[in-house]
Structure formats: C-alpha cells, structure tokens
Design a protein that fits this description.
- This protein is α/β, with parallel strands linked by helices and about 260 residues long.
- It has one domain: Aldolase class I (TIM Barrel, Alpha-Beta Barrel), CATH 3.20.20.70.
- Helices cover about 45% and strands about 15% of the residues.
- It has 12 helices and 8 strands.
- It has helices at about 15-40, 55-65, 90-95, 105-110, 115-125, 140-145, 150-160, 165-170, 190-205, 210, 230, 250-260, and strands at about 5-10, 45-50, 70, 100, 130-135, 170-175, 215-220, 240.
- An 8-stranded parallel beta sheet has the order 7-6-5-4-3-2-1-8.
- Helix 3 (about 90-95) links the parallel strand 3 and strand 4.
C-alpha cells in the first residue's frame, strides 16, 4: 500500500519564533485530531513540514516527539567546499532532517535550476540517506500547446532515470502544474488524476509496475481545504505538497483530514 503524505512547504515565511510557535500549536492540535481519527479506525497520513533553513534544526528536534517529519526546502548539488550561502545534504542529515525538496518550480523559475542540477541534488540527498521530494510540472504555455506530457516525461527522465531501482523507492514525486502555483487556480480532480496516472506509467516503463505502484505522487498547486478532498479522492493522488494553506494551523489540519 502506498504511503499517504501531506507535506507543508512554508517557503520564505515565518521568523524563528513565529515558526516554532506555530509548530507547537500544530503538534498539540494534531494530538487532539489523531485521538479522534483513531476512534474511527482511519490512519493518519505521514505529515511533513518544510520550514525555512533557520528553523529546520529546532523543528526536527521538536517533531521527533510527534512523529512528524521535517524537510528542507532545497540543498546544494555539491558535497562541500567554497560555495558561499549553500547548505549541503550532509549538513541537513546532521540536524536530523528527513526529506529534501528538490526541483520546486520556484527554484527552476527564479534560480534557473535545470533538470541536470536537480539530478545532482538528488544524488547528494540519497548519498546521505535522506528522502527526496522531487517536483515536476508543466507551464501554462506547454499545456495550451498540448505538450504537457512531453514536458513531464523529459523532467522525469532527466531528473530520475539515472537512479537505481533502490534509489527511486526513496523518492516521492510531487506534480505541481506551474500555472496553478500561487495563482489561486488549480488542476481539476480529473486533470490531476490524468497526470498522476501518466507519471506512474512513465515510472513503470523505466522501473517496472511493482515499483511504480509503491511510489507516492503528491499534488501541489493551490491545494486548500476547499478542493483537497476531491483531489485526494483520485486513485493515483497520494497526498499533497501544500504551500499557502500550510501556513495556518486550521487550514493545514483541514487539508490533512481531507485525505482520510
């Protein structure tokens, strides 16, 4: 059975105090919600929080008591050295991070990261026994030109196809249509299912059906309490990479409950 995952990406939001206060509030509320959910024989998804770098270490220590996973929003493609301002995967491993997000659309757009850069980052993450959340997605122009599948195939091939069968099982894929990030627009449930199913078929073609059935594929793109349940009800959607809705405890909890 594939793992259900709800990951909150805070992006460049919240000071250290604001972030830690929110985490304490969130974890206490999770205790309450979990006790209710357990009475219904439903299983909570894996919950992942990706705060800014300055909060990561303290967040990871705090999260251990609540069985919540912590992700870094990015890491360097280099192991170490004279790379001012960069954070290595080994540094993240040392402070008990669980996941690293790579290839987010904002990293591709604003920092001009290529699929080749992302592949190198994935290698660094896996070398340090961390898990990967690898983002892929098409632009509005690609979708309007009916090239969305071509674009996604190229991203998957160039970012992931160099991995071994063991390596790919440590990767979670997040589909984030670029035209639905921070715009208030989102893919319809049918559009999300169509692309998630396609991603799984591409992974299957390279690594086999057994592995593709085990890979969690998350939807990211203006997912919120109002649309989460419909999107998560699709058979190939295994959760969400949540942006804005992860910055408010009540909204994030409602998204988590939408997958149950």
């Amino acid at each position: 059975m594939r793992k259900k995952i709800i990951a909150g990406n805070w992006k460049m939001n919240k000071t250290h105090r604001e972030g830690m206060d929110m985490l304490v509030h969130l974890f206490k509320m999770l205790d309450f919600e979990t006790s209710i959910i357990e009475d219904t024989n439903k299983q909570m998804p894996e919950i992942v929080i990706a705060p800014p770098y300055l909060i990561v270490e303290n967040a990871a220590l705090l999260a251990q008591a609540w069985d919540v996973k912590i992700a870094a929003q990015n890491c360097s493609s280099e192991k170490e050295g004279a790379f001012t301002g960069e954070i290595s995967a080994a540094m993240l491993k040392a402070v008990k991070v669980n996941y690293v997000i790579v290839g987010h659309s904002e990293r591709r757009k604003y920092f001009h990261e290529t699929n080749q850069d992302i592949a190198k980052k994935i290698d660094r993450v896996l070398e340090n026994d961390l898990l990967v959340i690898c983002c892929v997605g098409e632009s509005l122009s690609e979708r309007e030109a009916n090239k969305e599948f071509q674009s996604i195939t190229r991203q998957l091939e160039e970012c992931l196809f160099h991995l071994s069968a063991d390596g790919i099982t440590k990767v979670v894929i997040a589909y984030e249509p670029l035209w639905a990030i921070g715009t208030g627009r989102n893919a319809t449930p049918d559009q999300a299912q169509e692309m998630h199913n396609y991603i799984r078929s591409v992974v299957s073609g390279k690594f086999g059906k057994d592995i593709s059935r085990k890979i969690s594929i998350l939807y990211g793109g203006s997912c919120n309490p109002k649309n989460a349940k419909q999107i998560f009800s699709q058979p190939d959607v295994d959760g969400g990479l949540i942006g804005g809705a992860s910055l408010e405890v009540r909204d994030f909890l409602d998204v988590i409950k939408a997958i149950l």
